[in-house]
């Protein structure tokens, strides 16, 4: 039997994926649950496994090409005898979009826009992708041993870095080298099915594969997958009626607390996320979202924080149940999320499960701005820089205090002006009068 391998939907917002690299080549034996291809979704690079045992008969979408979710990207034959039949099947499907194959038995399957260079009887190297390919086990081992993956040369298929490479580099050769451990998958039905996503594949550091800057004035640089996802998200947000409410918060007490705690690893991002999460406990509607059936109240307070990517676009790592985590754990989690987001190693639930978003441009010296509401959420808070400000008190005295401007954008279908104003007022009270409570 011949099975189609489809482009999987690795996230709820993904509409197409890009093939980063084929781990297997045409003719290679594949086991059920084994990684065969690495796909770039809208936010991360993911290992994709096959439901089927057999042989990778032909690759329909080569490395570097994109395909819509659900489109076939390869064929898997259960027996070697079926490989040629699979190639002919792929060539037949490609025929309407490509020139007819002169000799199907000697020509590999063609993608709709370009013929593959793979020989029918022997595998060849995939199209270079310019990325460092690392097995999930090697990535975890490198992290635990403090090994810089960028300095390694892989010995696995097509230069893939495996655990043995990390062990050899670190001088620890006691562990038996092994291929990436497959994640258990459901039993495949007798019909074609899409592969499932496993652990994210480690990519090279973000600086290793940036979107090229225009070298010549007037040059057009195509959008990468992440930028396309951001564009789609922003266009969808235009369908939502929103409003903005601003508030001035004195940060003197918060700044003093930060100075006390930053040597212990506490970040300002974690402090702000914790303050917002605690305040949201009193304002569940601000943490809710719109649905056709009514107001969808969230079962958890998951704070997403926008992070700019060096190669273009942005991502929103999510601090799950931020109101229930202590400040120190929250800071450690945030550092880990940011580090992995810039290596495109986040799992989908780590960037698409937010219920409330923070966008902080204060570190750039921005005084105030309005943020665009992410689809599926009811609110996003824009945070400006904390600056020394001359303030006149009610008794007429003049003082200098550090203040910041925050602006909340809300979905007016479920949240009203009074809801937003009360939320900001309570957030300001917490930050100005009792920030120490965030450490409890």
UniProtKB/TrEMBL annotation:
Q: What class of enzyme is it?
A: transferase
**Cofactor section:** (R)-lipoate
Residue span(s) of domain Peripheral subunit-binding (PSBD): 133-170
One biological process term from GO is:
pyruvate decarboxylation to acetyl-CoA
Please give the InterPro entries that the UniProt record associates with this protein. 2-oxoA_DH_lipoyl-BS, 2-oxoacid_DH_actylTfrase, Biotin_lipoyl, CAT-like_dom_sf, E2/Pdx1, E3-bd_dom_sf, PSBD, Single_hybrid_motif
| Gene Ontology molecular functions | dihydrolipoyllysine-residue acetyltransferase activity
Instruction: Give the UniProt keywords, A-Z.
Output: Acyltransferase, Lipoyl, Transferase
Pfam families per the UniProt record, alphabetical: 2-oxoacid_dh, Biotin_lipoyl, E3_binding
List the GO cellular component terms.
Answer: pyruvate dehydrogenase complex
User: What's the Enzyme Commission number for this chain?
Assistant: 2.3.1.-
Please list the residue ranges annotated as the Lipoyl-binding domain: 2-77
Concerning PANTHER family, the annotation shows:
DIHYDROLIPOAMIDE ACETYL/SUCCINYL-TRANSFERASE-RELATED, DIHYDROLIPOYLLYSINE-RESIDUE ACETYLTRANSFERASE COMPONENT 5 OF PYRUVATE DEHYDROGENASE COMPLEX, CHLOROPLASTIC
Task: State the family named in the UniProt similarity comment for this chain.
Answer: Belongs to the 2-oxoacid dehydrogenase family.
Q: What is this protein called?
A: Dihydrolipoamide acetyltransferase component of pyruvate dehydrogenase complex
Organism the protein comes from:
Prochlorothrix hollandica PCC 9006 = CALU 1027
């Amino acid at each position: 039997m011949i099975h189609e391998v489809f482009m999987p939907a690795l996230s709820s917002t993904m509409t197409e994926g890009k093939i980063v690299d084929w781990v297997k080549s045409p003719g290679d034996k594949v086991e059920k649950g084994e990684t065969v291809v690495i796909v770039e979704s809208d936010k991360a690079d993911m290992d994709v496994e096959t439901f089927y045992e057999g042989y990778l008969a032909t690759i329909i979408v080569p490395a570097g090409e994109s395909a819509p979710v659900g489109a076939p990207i390869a064929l898997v034959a259960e027996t070697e005898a079926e490989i040629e039949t699979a190639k002919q099947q792929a060539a037949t499907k490609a025929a309407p979009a490509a020139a007819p194959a002169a000799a199907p038995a000697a020509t590999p399957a063609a993608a709709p826009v370009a013929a593959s260079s793979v020989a029918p009887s022997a595998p060849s190297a995939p199209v270079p992708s310019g990325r460092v390919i690392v097995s999930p086990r090697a990535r975890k081992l490198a992290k635990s041993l403090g090994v810089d993956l960028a300095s390694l040369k892989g010995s696995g298929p097509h230069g893939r870095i495996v655990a043995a490479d990390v062990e050899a580099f670190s001088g620890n050769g006691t562990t038996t080298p092994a291929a990436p451990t497959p994640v258990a998958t459901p039993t495949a039905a007798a019909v074609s099915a899409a592969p499932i996503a496993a652990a994210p594949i480690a990519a090279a550091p973000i600086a290793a594969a940036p979107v090229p800057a225009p070298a010549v004035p007037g040059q057009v640089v195509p959008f990468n997958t992440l930028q396309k996802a951001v564009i789609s998200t922003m266009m969808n947000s235009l369908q939502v009626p929103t409003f903005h409410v601003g508030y001035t918060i004195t940060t003197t007490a918060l700044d003093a607390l930060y100075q006390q705690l930053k040597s212990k690893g506490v970040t300002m991002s974690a402090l702000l996320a914790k303050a917002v999460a605690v305040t949201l406990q009193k304002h569940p509607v601000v943490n809710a979202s719109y649905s056709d059936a009514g107001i969808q109240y969230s079962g958890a307070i998951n704070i997403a924080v926008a992070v700019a990517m060096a190669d273009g676009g942005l991502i929103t790592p999510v601090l799950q149940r931020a109101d229930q985590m202590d400040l120190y754990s929250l800071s450690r989690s945030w550092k880990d999320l940011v580090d992995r987001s810039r290596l495109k190693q986040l799992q989908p639930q780590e960037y698409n499960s937010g219920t409330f978003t923070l966008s902080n441009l204060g570190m750039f010296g921005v005084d105030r701005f309005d943020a665009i509401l992410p689809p599926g959420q009811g609110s996003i808070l824009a945070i400006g820089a904390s600056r020394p400000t001359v303030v006149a008190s009610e008794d007429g005295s003049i003082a200098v205090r550090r203040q910041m401007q925050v602006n909340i954008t809300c979905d007016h279908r479920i949240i009203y002006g009074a809801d937003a104003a009360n939320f900001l007022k309570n957030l300001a009270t917490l930050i100005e009068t009792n920030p120490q409570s965030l450490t409890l």
